[in-house]
Amino acid sequence: MRPLRHDSGPDQIFRNVCNYGNHWVELDLRGRWPASGGSNPEGVGATVYVTAGGVTQMREQNGGHHRWSQHHQRLHFGLGPDAVIDEVVVKWPDGSVDTFLGDIAANQIYLAEEGAGALQPVTLGGGTQPPGTGPECREPDITPATEQGLFLWRDCPSDTWHMRVTAGGPDRLIYNGLVTAEQPFPAPPLPFSIENNDVLDNSDPLTILYDLKVVNTGKDGFSFEMPATGQTCFRADTTIYLGISKTPVGTSLDLASLTACGNLAELSIDDVTVSEESGMASFTVSLSTTSSEEVRVDYSTIDATATAPDDYTAVSGTLILAPGETSGQVQVPIIDDALSEGMETFTLQLSNPVGAIIANDTGTGTITDNEASACGQPDFDPATERGLFLWQDCPTATWHVRATAAGPDKVVYNGLITAEQDFPSAPVPFSIEQNDVLDASASRAISFMLSMRNSGQDGFSFDTPASGQVCFEVTAPPDVQLFVGVQKDAVGNTVNLGTLGPCSTIP
Questions:
Q1: SS3 sequence of 34-72
Q2: Which neighbouring-strand residues pair with 109?
Q3: What is the pTM assigned to this prediction?
Q4: Which of these, 105, 176, 157, 104, lies nearest to 359 by C-alpha position?
Q5: pLDDT tens digits along 10-48
């Protein structure tokens, strides 16, 4: 019987089952011709060291030949969880050594050329990589309840791109950006979980604009096809996580070469504080760098403690920055009323940018009241400021009292709070000692005697009835100063808590 040769077995095909969460890098070597003082062109005989995550691996370039078969000369390094390579060292057959340093991205093929200063990315076939093999391919495993980010991948067999954003928690997040192309997109984007407060706009055939809001376990996004020719660039206001390995690739990505596009300028808006009598709040919208194209962004006001039309005039529209301009103004008229309201705020929000991305989408407008206001805790130093300070936490309607001595002499404050209706609850003491008095035994009166010295401060908090007059009166000492609200307005020794004016007689 003729013995079997070890190369005569049946043909077999094997499926390589990968852990798609791991990372890799592959290297092609190119030596200089020996006539030029270098190594052989294939780099046969070279030794290559790759370091990532504190682990160094070694491969030898042996030409790829075996007795009955051969393998690819490209050197493969498995990197496990490490998505960045710290160092690549190539020891060439002629004795020269090349060291390539820096944050070298994994999941990529590179050319290491003898004497070159940097690794060069390799694209298979002179174009895109074969279906299913590129680092952008395959959908990542995303847990929207705990993972926060923008995820982008390509279904390589169909060549369709998909994008998803998540909040990973209870805080509401906003993702905005755009996809730009040199040729028209072949079809409109396909929305995924887009709600009324989201924006997905492809009215410009060369641009897909998105502004997506997510919270908790929400996951929004869209799918799209890129044109067959020309550059297509995906731009975001946050880091893009690419492919099944969720590799961070920056805030812009050329979808053909998987390299960074030129970054778009970023829009931001400032906060503004104006007095009520100023008549106008002027917000500045700034661009991080000049643009050679027109930049547009929509704006609109949103009520907070200040409301339109009582406190300001609502505005909305589109701000246009001409090429070369780096800032513009949005004017919001302010209403000067006769009410005592304290500080109030509203928001001016940016949305739907064109030609830029939004880095900061909201500016806060703060209106300071020109009438005496009880709202807001004042800033006072009990060691140097003597008086009785009274203010209201306006969102909760709770009042607070603090008395100070501002010196070594003992000071005693006596007073009475009376109401036309029953107080809804007992006062809450603050630093009340045995020699102080806080008496709420009468349903429509609170009497107090507060004594302190040096930097001590005594006081209490209380809620007022829903209707009827409430009068706050200080009877001692005779030179008492009663300061109200965050601005510490002096109001004498008696004040109506509803109007901050004089009290009328309570029966």
A1: HHHCCCCCCCCCCEEEEEECCEEEEEECCCCECCCCECC
A2: 26, 122
A3: 0.41
A4: 176
A5: 666 666 555 556 788 888 888 876 645 566 777 888 899
